[in-house]
Amino acid sequence: MPELPDVEGFRRTFAAAVHRRRVLGLHADPAIVRNTTPQALGRALHGARFEAPRRHGKWLMCPAGARILVLHFGMTGGLRWVAGGGPRHPHDRLVLVLGGSRPEGELRYRSQRKLGGVWLATAGGDVIGELGPDARDTPPHEVAAHVAGRRAALKAVLLDQRTVAGLGNLTSDEILWRAGLDPRRRASALDEDDLRAFGSALRWVLERACAAGRVPDRSGWLTGARRRDGRCPRCGTPLRRAAVAGRTTYWCPACQR
Fold first, then answer.
1. Is residue 239 helix, strand or coil?
2. What pLDDT digit, counting tens, does each position of 202-244 carry?
3. In what order do the strands lie in the sheet with 105-110?
4. What pLDDT digit, counting tens, does each position of 245-256 carry?
5. What's 72's DSSP letter?
6. 2 catalytic per annotation
7. How far apart are CA 166 and CA 142, in angstroms?
8. Which of 10, 14, 84, 177 is the most exposed place for a label (fewest CB within 10 A)?
């Protein structure tokens, strides 16, 4: 499932594709257009030039004058730039045909499943809704303050987008492993040292994952050891695996007491 680092990569893809280009055409699967119709979406954006997109949590907001195209990627969504067009994939749910002072091409929102979607919003309106502060753009100590005091398990608190926006299953596990915090522990039980460790791990993980456009599964990362026979990259202890907050969770019983 795309998480904050993935959507940060999609933001860069969108920004590069729309720079000095305008919308020449639009094709959309009605199943992923949430608050309007494909025809109305096309009329609203035809001829528009997108400004720099911005991300909040797992959402991408793409302003075009008085309108904002809002993208959410669900479990399988992603963005691809195809220079010059070419054959489309059956799972290309939204296609923006772009051209102008630069060569034409298509920006394609591709998703095997239709759990994400696109919305059309008005500039100045409430786009974020009940989302909490962005996990990357908010100072780590402020994110830690939002987490502290919650009575739920740490993993559940981090996955709640109303508490902090953008963290998902992989990022949450990676951050808690690096901070040495058990995902089942109550957030309200964290002391000042725990919160500092959490904030430091949050910053470290998101900086590197956003640079990669995903949560890396390389050596030295918990993500690279997420399997039934996986061992802790730090101490070699066999990893524990269980459902926490309804999600498959990995942690080291030695490092995350």
1. coil
2. 999 999 999 999 999 999 999 999 999 999 999 999 999 999 9
3. 21-28, 92-100, 105-110, 78-83
4. 999 999 999 999
5. E
6. yes
7. 15
8. 84
Q: Where are the alpha helices (DSSP H) in the chain?
A: 4-18, 38-45, 140-147, 154-159, 169-179, 192-212
Q: Which of 12, 54, 184, 247 is catalytic?
A: 247
What does the alpha-carbon distance between residue 175 and residue 188 come to, in Å, rounded to a whole number? Answer: 17
Dig out the tokens for 77 from the structure.
């969504």
Q: Which of 11, 21, 55, 58 is the catalytic position?
A: 58
Q: Angle at CA 210, nearest 5°, toward 11 and 76?
A: 60
Greatest CA separation for the chain: 58
How far, in Å, are 8, 185, 231 from residue 176 at the CA level?
21, 10, 16
**Residues 235/228, Cβ–Cβ less than 8 Å:** no
Tell me whether residue 142 is one of the annotated catalytic residues.
Answer: no
- Domains within the chain, CATH numbers bracketed: 4-122 (3.20.190.10), 140-251 (1.10.8.50)
